[in-house]
Specification:
Number of domains of chain A: 2
Number of helices of chain B: 9
Largest sheet of chain B: 6 strands, mixed
Keywords (chain B): Transferase
Structural class of chain A: alpha/beta
Number of strands of chain A: 12
CATH superfamily of chain B: Glutaconate Coenzyme A-transferase
Helix content of chain A: 25-40%
CATH class of the largest domain in chain A: Alpha Beta
Organism (chain B): Streptomyces angustmyceticus
CATH architecture of chain B: 3-Layer(aba) Sandwich
Order of helices and strands of chain B: HEHEEEHEEEEEHEHHEEEHHH
Strand content of chain A: 15-25%
Order of helices and strands of chain A: HEHEHEHEHEHEEEEHEEEHHH
Number of helices of chain A: 10
Number of strands of chain B: 13
Distance between the termini of chain A: 48 Å
Protein name (chain B): CoA-transferase
Shape of chain A: globular
Radius of gyration of chain B: 18 Å
Oligomer: heterodimer
Family (chain B): Belongs to the 3-oxoacid CoA-transferase subunit B family.
Shape of chain B: globular
GO molecular function (chain B): CoA-transferase activity
Helix content of chain B: 25-40%
CATH superfamily of the largest domain in chain A: Glutaconate Coenzyme A-transferase
Largest interface: A-B, 40 and 46 residues
Strand content of chain B: 15-25%
CATH topology of chain B: Glutaconate Coenzyme A-transferase
Chain lengths: 279, 247
């Protein structure tokens, strides 16, 4: 069977400017940061990003790679407001398509099920309908006759997610408390790339319910230890809070210069020496 | 902190806890410190059937013992199924209970980008939503919110029966008092003031006219048991006093 292992650079080489990219994880939790850093090293731009936003959104927005953002929020969790997302938004750097968390989920669900939309009660009466005038409503064909928002499918060209373990065929396992929506991201995308903490030979001893992502929905697998850094990847590691704070308080060019100008190995050693300096 | 005098923060805890009274077996989702203390107090005392989370993906008892799994997907099902009562924060809140946490200023080019609407639209249309405002001011209690995230009574009515069907805002608690929408037009009413606060003070800090009952009651006193639970079991470090300092 096909060995789907590749490098972060291989993943990025399969992407194009102008694409619609979904990014898994939630806030500052289990974000595919090694893949996002690889994206930042490329010249890809003009992206439509679909994300339950965290520093993935902040990094890409600060670097000017986003044309359109589809999101319900952007947060660093322990730091409630994502500073680079805020700054970019306040200078009008990208178009925001703001929807709510539930609309987002139904949009992923619709895309994964090859439906044009799914009805959802949320959105009605809120300004999401005002700022998103393309949203339509739909009337129930049954006796209740209720009106709902027809949440359009969030179909994407590619999805990037980070999991704890994967095999070479593309099966992915999560070991943390929450799957977030990573399996839906993979199923909602034409191609999906899974980075993982460790590639394993098989899942012989795995608890079956942890085997979240199936290989038929995965195009490439990247072994990226610490690949969610600085977001959390519990139980393998928690969020690097001091480093996240540094990210949130350092002017972007300075942060990018020190941490993002080399490859992933360079990033890791730059983070390591920064931590040493803090001792 | 005087051992015999109830502090403002403790009245706030009582007012938040009472929001979950008689709610039965629903998920209490407190956002913010004082609502969290309130939800735990309610479960300790008059609402033992409440479900609480660890803030991540587990349903836990008061002692932290795990009793269930609640990842985001199932949490959203609890919201849409209506078996949840959330107490959210608000950067802005208006007369009919419209709430904003998205941005300040024009949405196209905001002066201050905040969180985004998060789950406020789905929450308000599907399960009861109360609000907690730790610092009552005209900056929060505004005539009109800049971006309707949580849906208020007038907006729900304008959107039709699907929007109003499960819409309910039981109460708003601030550091000054308790508010509800028990008026003919569902406009905000001052339902009670915390001891030490005058009605005039509340009106002066609110950016729209408040409906007033004939006589404005005061927030009830905590029982001796409640005070002991707050001070020695739930918040022994006194973190509540930092969120709402003594007036």
């Amino acid at each position: 069977m096909t060995d789907k292992t590749m490098t972060p650079e291989d993943v990025v080489s399969r992407l194009r400017s102008g694409m619609t990219l979904g990014i898994g994880g939630w806030g500052s939790r289990r974000k595919p940061m090694a893949l996002v850093r690889a994206l930042l090293r490329s010249d890809l731009t003009d992206l439509t990003v679909i994300s339950y936003g965290g520093p993935d959104v902040g990094l890409l927005a600060a670097a000017g790679r986003i044309r359109t953002l589809v999101a319900a929020f952007a947060t660093l969790d322990s730091i409630p407001l994502e500073p680079h997302f805020r700054a970019a938004r306040q200078r009008g750097a990208f178009e925001l398509r703001e929807i709510d968390e539930a609309m987002f989920m139904w949009g992923l669900q619709a895309a994964a099920h090859r439906l044009p939309f799914l009805p959802v009660r949320s959105g009605l009466g809120s300004d999401v309908m005002r700022v998103n005038p393309a949203l339509r409503t739909v009337t129930s064909p049954y006796e209740d006759g209720e009106t709902f928002v027809a949440m359009p499918a969030l179909r994407m060209d590619a999805a990037l997610v980070h999991l704890h373990r994967a095999d070479r065929l593309g099966n992915g396992q999560y070991l943390g408390p929450d799957p977030y929506f990573d399996d839906l991201f993979c199923e909602a995308a034409d191609s999906a790339y899974v980075s993982c903490e460790r590639i394993v030979d098989d899942f012989a001893s795995a608890v079956p319910q942890t085997l979240l992502v199936k290989r038929h929905s995965v195009t490439g697998v990247v072994e990226a230890p610490n690949g969610a850094h600085f977001t959390s990847c519990a139980p393998d590691y928690g969020r690097d809070e001091p480093f996240q704070k540094l990210y949130a308080t350092t002017p972007w060019p300075q942060f990018a210069e020190r941490f993002l100008s080399g490859d992933e190995k360079t990033y890791r050693s730059a983070v390591h020496s920064w931590h040493e300096e803090q001792q | 902190m005087n051992a015999t005098t109830t502090t403002r923060a403790e009245y706030c805890v009582i007012a938040c806890a009472d929001a979950w009274r008689d709610n039965g077996e629903v998920l209490a989702s407190p956002m913010g410190l004082i609502p969290s203390i309130g939800a735990r107090l309610a479960k300790h005392t008059f609402s033992p059937d409440l479900l609480l989370t660890d803030g991540e993906a587990l349903i836990v008892g008061l002692d932290g013992a795990v009793e269930g799994w609640l990842p985001y997907r199932q949490h959203l099902a609890m919201v849409t199924g209506g078996r949840r009562h959330v107490m959210m924060g608000a950067s802005q809140l208006d007369r009919f209970g419209n709430q904003n946490i998205s941005c300040i200023g024009d949405w196209q080019r905001p002066d201050r980008q905040l969180l985004g609407v998060r789950g406020a639209p789905v929450n308000t249309l599907n399960n009861p939503v109360s609000y907690w405002v730790p610092k009552h001011s005209k900056r929060v209690f505004v005539a009109r919110v800049d971006m309707i995230s949580g849906v208020g009574y007038d907006s729900a009515a304008a959107a039709g029966p699907s929007a109003t069907r499960f819409h309910r805002i039981p109460r708003v608690v601030s550091d000054l008092g308790v508010f509800d929408f028990a008026t003919p037009d569902h406009s905000m009413r001052l339902a009670g003031v915390h001891p030490g606060v005058s009605v005039e003070e509340v009106r002066a800090a609110t950016g729209f006219p408040l409906a007033l009952p004939g006589e404005v009651p005061r927030t009830r006193e905590p029982t001796a048991t409640e005070l002991r639970l707050i001070r020695t079991v739930i918040d022994p470090e006194g973190r509540r006093e930092r969120e709402v300092p003594a007036a």
